[in-house]
Amino acid sequence: MDIKYTINAEEIFKARNSSLYKYGKDFAEIQDVIKKIGSKPVIDMVSDEHKALTDRDAKEIAKLGLISVELIRDDPKKFLAYLNSLVVIDLSVLAKLVIHYQLFGGTILELGTEQHHKKYFPDIKHMKIVGGFGMTEMGHGSNVRNIETIAEYDHQSKEFVINSPTPSSTKFWIGNLAKYGTHCVLFCKLIYKGEDKGVHGIVTPIRDVDTKQVFPGIEIGDCGPKIGWNGIDNAWIRFRNYRVPKENLLNKFANIDDKGEYTCKLPTPGKLFQNTISQLVFGRMLYICGPVRVLNINLKTVINYALSRRQFGEKGKSEELIMNYPSHYQVLLPMLGHLVAFEIARDSVIERLFDKNEEKLDETNSIISGVKALVNEYNMTCTNKLRTFCGGNGISSYNLFGYFRNEMDIFQTAEGDGAVLYQQLSKFLLSEYKKWYKKEGVTGYIIKEVQTFLATSNPIYTHSRSIPYILSNEFHHHAFSYRFEKMRSIVIEKLSHSKSKKMTFMQSWNDTLLYIIELSKAYTHLYILEQAHLSIKRCTDPPTRQLLNDLIKLYALSSIENDFGFYRNYNCISAGQALKISEAIKELCIAIKPYALDIINTDNSTSFDIPLAKDGNYIQHMASRVGIPFSKL
Amino acid sequence: MDIKYTINAEEIFKARNSSLYKYGKDFAEIQDVIKKIGSKPVIDMVSDEHKALTDRDAKEIAKLGLISVELIRDDPKKFLAYLNSLVVIDLSVLAKLVIHYQLFGGTILELGTEQHHKKYFPDIKHMKIVGGFGMTEMGHGSNVRNIETIAEYDHQSKEFVINSPTPSSTKFWIGNLAKYGTHCVLFCKLIYKGEDKGVHGIVTPIRDVDTKQVFPGIEIGDCGPKIGWNGIDNAWIRFRNYRVPKENLLNKFANIDDKGEYTCKLPTPGKLFQNTISQLVFGRMLYICGPVRVLNINLKTVINYALSRRQFGEKGKSEELIMNYPSHYQVLLPMLGHLVAFEIARDSVIERLFDKNEEKLDETNSIISGVKALVNEYNMTCTNKLRTFCGGNGISSYNLFGYFRNEMDIFQTAEGDGAVLYQQLSKFLLSEYKKWYKKEGVTGYIIKEVQTFLATSNPIYTHSRSIPYILSNEFHHHAFSYRFEKMRSIVIEKLSHSKSKKMTFMQSWNDTLLYIIELSKAYTHLYILEQAHLSIKRCTDPPTRQLLNDLIKLYALSSIENDFGFYRNYNCISAGQALKISEAIKELCIAIKPYALDIINTDNSTSFDIPLAKDGNYIQHMASRVGIPFSKL
């Protein structure tokens, strides 16, 4: 391979940010406020001080009046673009705004009715009231359905009486509420005439808006220092016969009318539950945006450093750039391929989510779950590796590896741990397959199996060692599809097998869990690849298209290499082919290496002040940061 | 498999800590001081305050007079046991003591002579002087040979004139010196009569012992906040015609006599250099102890939590313990297997290092490099996974996942980045092979190759799917040896092949780098396995032996599974065998699961106050930590 690419920065940026491209890279008004308040990553501050600063800065940004709950409804992409443009300030401030507008406000928007919108939206907009999202309890994280906080309806006073009946029912990690918040969307079991009606959302005042006094009946405190997000005041909360008026029930789907009658518009408690926790999907989408952005930033730091730091080399010559060691570029450049693939996938889920296609809602939610789990896992692994690629300089807080790792760690389990989210996607995939199977019947099934068999046992497929074939998008798509379909048949086979062993469905599901998770990963990888291939086709600029295509090939081949165990054990590729794949990866890396800096520089929208990321002169930038007076040299 | 183990806690502890066992689990005197000073992990403090606290606490421990440089010489295991007993305080304090006694004091011990020992040891003991290790520069990390700081000998005044000639020569990350240190072992190029004599160590006073004033000719400052070790005051230092008397040269090997003659006892500059940086080996050994200990602590937290936290489950029943999900125990228990294997390997390198067998010095140093790189990489990956296994509670600083990750991150690159250390080991392995090859000649070589070929092409080996065979230590040793030997032939083949392409040795080495690193990993895995098998044989208590053996089998099989790509691509195992290996891992996990808590509890020497790690009552412990008043319930 001897490739020369042409870099068209604008086109590459557009392809890497298709969904929000039309909003431009920044918003002047917000940038002005940021400059004024001077918010930047907090790297050396005690958490109480950090919380106070975060509260101040979030309110400064709110004062602008640009962000509002209505915007989520009217132009959600613009809402997202605003959040995106804020990824230059301390991430706790951003998190505070997200909890307040999207989780708290968005829940009122989706589950509440006109009266709630009128009553709360204006005060939310300017953060006159500050909201939290009261879901998690000490004993209940991902399994929201089992939360224990109860709101019993009192017919006499037309109020809900809220209680925390057990230690494990204590609300925990409730963001924005330990010190500064005033309201909370409280998720609790609604008890109506002694009957448990399931999880409902109730707007619950916590502190007096003016005096900031906590109301009687509420015990509240701070959850203490955390790995990240230390600017957020996460609360534990306990209720003791705390009363809120019935109007505070978010009653779009379930209502108690003036006569005290409980009604629910949705056909099943399951549907009600699904709608009740719907804001989590938007949150998960943000939890895809975060790590993708961070991967971008960290790669920029590492690529700049790798092209300026020298170490070891031939005697008598200047030391070698660390970028030129295969232990460096063969790790770094596949990450760049993943970044671009992830960016395209992120844009595709944004489009899907805002498309609001009711029929595809389940599919969208499931895909978001898979992508959220995958990119977070990948990003955390990368962050660690990338830090080591900067040696001691990577340890300096100024270069933000530690900062981003700490801030991103939470993303891995918040709003759904990877293992739980992967299961959610697999459930969807299996139920889709069941539908298809029912429609096509056994004949369709057999045809499909035979096709797969033929495709993989055909030596042209499994044994071709020709580099053009190995580099072809067809091969990649074929391999990813095969992995997905094979995992699906394995899961189905294992589930049916354990059925014959008289296990309950739950037992058999859990017994198959590792394969179920693999199935989900395989599908997510395939989904990302397909979105990337589609996006490449849409790209009208030929040089950009070629470059993107090669980056996606790197994503595909390095994923296959990473999973050689599977591909070999299930006879999708031969040993000889596997070795050729590793060679192809190396060649792609060597071809892309001279362009790595230009590629990563096409997105300059994040302007964190990172000494190693500026340019080739890391010694100068580190020196000026720690106050070394070179001028006197 | 239906195994019942008998847990003999004392025997297991002994097997897991054979090297330091005779020193007991703690030292009463040190524990008293720790109680008095109340040092514990610092999780929410600005770095300047943390540095002051660290300085105070380190000096309190020094006051006891138990630790000294002489102890490193007279009873290094006791020295190590003291350090080990300190892994209950904030790790910055420990780091400060290590830099001071081992790196600073140890270098004076090894490179200095009687006069230096007499002059400095008493003041080092009680930390009247506080020392640092002045090696790294802004432009030079792992490649110590290229440091630029110069010490030119002035014959007239019999002094060295020290200068930092370039920005990149600025000393950087020099621990203990930014605020509180008084002396430094400075590594610099000795210029004698205009000739560069290579890297030498010179004791260099930095601050006045009484007034703490920095001496003229020195510019010094703090490197700023870091990912971890924020109690350490890391300095940047620049010298301008700073003079130190010739007596300060550590002159055991290289000396300038009273007549101004430079002499060196060692045959080559390479040998002098190797001796000069010898303290790094001891440091690397400590960098093995650290992550192994941390893996132990984190596993204890996660196992306790997994046996108390419940999530999801059959309808109408209480939720399932998270330990019972394969996505949990099939990840967690192989880590427990690795922990025990690593503990045994750690003990074996301690024995090797203190054995001081000159002939085996090279081998020992190389093995330590490989083990250091491997355990640190493994531990960092585990820490992230283990954090997610505790969900939101893992995010709380009180459970120390973030703390340990931040403190351990530095270990990955300090005193040698993994990629550099693996290369060091591979160089040793290849030169050993060359020696053997020369001795045995072509016949020996062919016999060895044929043996390997027979062993692996024999279907009994490569295709046996019998579980007893797959579980046998012979199979594991065979597979690990095969991987090592195969990687070695691949590397040799690639190196000779590129020779024919007229590459320089350096080019050809770098072109083969990924394989060279794999070779080193393969050997390190094999070394650990062999040490574990030896240790099991030495264990005289049959139930303990069986349990240890099964834990090591889990280490071995999960390593093989993790590297299925290699084993399949190089025809060491068949596809059918691979699937059986995964089954065997599952069975081993299921057998060990009920004993996991007892196993991890055999080592209670670390008594960090971690809420989740105490026992099954995590809600109570978290609640009491954040002040939730359950008593009123």
Automatic annotation (TrEMBL), chains A, B:
Residues at which FAD binds: 136, 175
Domain (Acyl-CoA oxidase C-terminal): residue spans on this chain: 478-599
Q: Name one GO biological process term.
A: fatty acid beta-oxidation using acyl-CoA oxidase
- State whether keyword Plastid applies: no
Where does this protein chiefly localize?
A: other
Recorded GO cellular component terms are:
peroxisome
Q: Where in the cell is it found?
A: Peroxisome
* Record GO terms (molecular function): acyl-CoA oxidase activity; FAD binding; fatty acid binding; flavin adenine dinucleotide binding
The catalytic residues are 415
Which InterPro entries does the record match to this protein? ACOX_C_alpha1, Acyl-CoA_Oxase/DH_mid-dom, Acyl-CoA_Oxase/DH_mid-dom_sf, Acyl-CoA_oxidase, Acyl-CoA_oxidase_C, AcylCo_DH-like_C, AcylCoA_DH/oxidase_NM_dom_sf
Q: What Pfam families does its record include?
A: ACOX, ACOX_C_alpha1, Acyl-CoA_dh_M
Q: Which domain of life is it from?
A: Eukaryota
* Names of required cofactors: FAD
All copies of domain Acyl-CoA oxidase C-alpha1, residue ranges: 279-430
Similarity comment: Belongs to the acyl-CoA oxidase family.
Output this protein's name: Acyl-coenzyme A oxidase
Source organism of the structure:
Dictyostelium purpureum (Slime mold)
